Amino acid sequence: MLREDALEAVYPRLKSQVVVTIMGAVAVELYNLGHQPNFFYLEHGMGLASSMGLGLAVSLPEEKITVLDGDGSVLMNLGSLSTLARYSPPNLTHWIFDNESLLSVGGFPTATGAGTDLAGIAEKAGAEHVALADTVEDAEQAFNEASEREGLSIIVSKVEAIGPSSFAMDINLLENRFEFSRYLRGLVG
Amino acid sequence: MPVSVNNSEIIFAALKSAGITLLSALPETWLVHVMQMAEDDPDMTLIRLNKEEEGVGISTGAHLAGRKSAMLMQNHGLLTSVNGIVSVAQLYRIPLLLVISYRGEMGERDPWQTEGGRITEPLLRALGIIYRKLVDPETVAYEIKQAQTLAESSLRPVALLLTRDLMWEE
């Protein structure tokens, strides 16, 4: 499966959620589908997108929060899977796209290609709901289920190590930050 | 355990008065009472971390949603959080209140704390983080309020160092 095909399939639903992506290919692919004020692209701080999702989820209990993460970032902050499972915010979906590669920095292989099982780690960290979704159809179904259920949902999708032809995004990171924050504060009122 | 309960209460009350409703923390001897107060207070959300840097992400999410938060940690937790502080909180201009127990300074008896103590203030200066050392319980509420005010106006991390004189009674 291509990550961008999965994203395209769930894009209509993502538009109504608060979304945080990691840097690189995921950010660009979501941006290219159509930027929204409720989309935030964390362009650095590898590993912290899931922690940001937790902070958003406990601060915006009425909203659905989705973090679009990657294997390289999750491996850098594995403890976060345990913290997410410990607090299990009912409104958080943590979707990990596992391409077994640090694609955006040259495609070096990560440990998931050598046997590290992120879904297994999430389960053993105590996450109540871990889904595997390696086809577009399964991805759409897993994301729909995650969006409708009350509880922390973790989705792990194996994807091909293919990214966009260009990483250019016509949005300054502070512009993104302030637009996103203004949007969220409007939700809270 | 001779950690000051009174001064821990003053710190916790001051954090609440500054509007903080979310604390992310990793246990440390000097912080046990403050953490317990946070755990017991229904108006405070406490998130116990596995590693301090997670707290930078949590506070960033909270801030963007309009919620005031702080990180509670030992100075060695500051050391493990440096990349998050630089490449999230400073890059994205997040007002991040860092409340740090200052181990390894004058009077420290644990050898393993001394290297962290030696470089805490130079590190904060290198990061360009404005900080104060909290020594006198009489000024704690004022200093916490001032620090939160500066964090919010500058949209940057600000640090408070909880000293041995404030936290330890013997």
What is the class of chain A in the CATH system?
Alpha Beta
**Shape assignment of chain A:** globular
CATH topology descriptor of chain A? Rossmann fold
The greatest inter-chain interface is formed by: A-B, 35 and 30 residues
Summarize the main sheet of chain A: 6 strands, parallel
Helix content of chain B: 40-55%
Question: Order of strands side by side in the largest beta sheet of chain B?
Answer: 2-1-3-4-6-5
Distance between the termini of chain A: 40 Å
Average pLDDT of chain B, to the nearest integer? 97
The major pleated sheet of chain B works out as: 6 strands, parallel
What sequence of helices (H) and strands (E) makes up the elements of chain B?
A: HEHEHEHHEHEHEH
Number of strand elements of chain A:
8
Q: State the helix count of chain A.
A: 8
> Could you tell me the mean pLDDT of chain A?
96
Which of globular, elongated, flat, extended, rod-shaped describes the shape of chain B? globular
Distance between the termini of chain B: 9 Å
The share of residues in extended strands of chain B comes to 15-25%
Low-confidence stretches of chain B: none
Uncertain segments of chain A: none
Write the layout of secondary structure elements.
The complex is a heterodimer of chains A (189) and B (170).
Chain A (H helix, E strand, L loop, with lengths): L2 H12 L3 E4 L3 H9 L5 E3 L7 H11 L5 E6 H6 L2 H9 L4 E7 L2 E2 L5 E2 L8 H7 L5 E3 L3 H13 L4 E6 L14 H16 L1
Parallel strand pairs in A: 1-2, 1-3, 3-4, 4-8, 7-8
Antiparallel strand pairs in A: 5-6
Chain B lengths: L4 H13 L4 E4 L6 H9 L4 E4 L4 H12 L4 E6 H6 L1 H9 L6 E5 L12 H14 L2 E5 L2 H18 L3 E5 L1 H4 L3
Parallel strand pairs in B: 1-2, 1-3, 3-4, 4-6, 5-6
Helix pairs in contact in B: 1-2, 1-7, 3-5
Please explain how this structure is put together.
The complex is a heterodimer of chains A (189) and B (170). Helices cover 44% and strands 17% of the residues of chain A. The longest helix of chain A is centred in the last third of the chain and has 16 residues, at 173-188. A 6-stranded parallel sheet of chain A has the order 2-1-3-4-8-7, with helices on both faces. A two-stranded antiparallel sheet of chain A has the order 5-6. Chain A has helices at residues 3-14, 25-33, 49-59, 71-76, 79-87, 118-124, 136-148, 173-188, and strands at 18-21, 39-41, 65-70, 92-98, 101-102, 108-109, 130-132, 153-158. The model of chain A has no long low-confidence stretch (mean pLDDT 96). With 189 residues, chain A is α/β, with parallel strands linked by helices. Chain A has a single domain (3-188), classed as 3-Layer(aba) Sandwich (Rossmann fold). Chain A starts with a helix and ends with a helix. With 170 residues, chain B is α/β, with parallel strands linked by helices. Chain B has a domain at 36-81 and 93-153. Helices cover 50% and strands 17% of the residues of chain B. Chain B is built from 8 helices and 6 strands. Chain B has a 6-stranded parallel sheet, with helices on both faces. Chain B is globular and about 40 Å long. The chains are: A alpha/beta (189), B alpha/beta (170).
